Amino acid sequence: MKRLLLCAGPRNGPYSTDRWFRVDCDPRVEPDLVARVPPIPQELKDHGEWDTIALIHGIEHFAVWDVRRLLAELCPLLKVGGTLILEQPNIAVCSAHLDNPVYYNGIYGDPVGDRDDMLHKSGHTPESLAAEVVRAGFRDPVTGAPLFHHPERDFRLVATR
Q: Residue 70 CB: number of other CB atoms within 10 A?
C-alpha cells in the first residue's frame, strides 16, 4: 500500500508507526522528501498513484488559493477509490473561544520557533473544506471527530477519488 503524508512533521507525529512516504519543508524532521507544496514535486508524481494521501494539520498552513491548487494537484495522484484524509482546526469553533490559547492557536498557528511556515493562512469549517474537496474532484467527503490533537476543536475529513 502506497501512503503519502504531506506536512509530515516530526517522526513521532501522526502515523509515525505506519509506513508513510513523508514530505515536509523542514529538513530537521527528516522527511523522505524535503519539499514545499504546491506545486507537487515531480518525484511524487513519479511514484505513480497513491492509495492514501493525508495532511494532518497541514491544509490550514496554505492560503486559500494554494489550498485549491494543492487539492486539485493531489486528486490525480490518488488512485481511483483511494482515500484523502485531512485533519485541521474548525475555524468556527476556534473563533468562539479566542480567550483560550488552544483555540487561538487553531486560528493563527503554533507560535513555536517563530517560523512563518507554522502560521495558519486559511481557516475551514467541515462544510467549507468539504466543498473545496469536491471542487477539486474528490467525492463523498465525510467529516467527523479527529484522531489527533484537539477533539473539542478540530475535525477530520475523509474523501475518495
A: 21
Position 53 scores a pLDDT of: 97
pTM of the model: 0.94
Continuous H helices in the chain? 42-46, 64-74, 91-95, 101-108, 126-135
Length of the chain equals: 161
Confidence (pLDDT) at 68: 97
107: cell is 486560528
Residues in contact with 3: Cβ distance below 8 Å, sequence separation at least 6, in sequence order: 15, 18, 19, 20, 21, 50, 51, 52, 53, 54
Please tell me the number of Cα atoms within 13 Å of 118 on its side-chain side: 10
Residue 129's alpha-carbon distances to 47, 51, 125, 138, 152, in angstroms, are 27, 21, 6, 11, 18
Could you say which residues of the chain have pLDDT below 50?
none
pLDDT of residue 110: 78
The amino acid occupying position 76 is P
Angle, vertex CA 139, rays to CA 138 and CA 144, nearest 5: 105
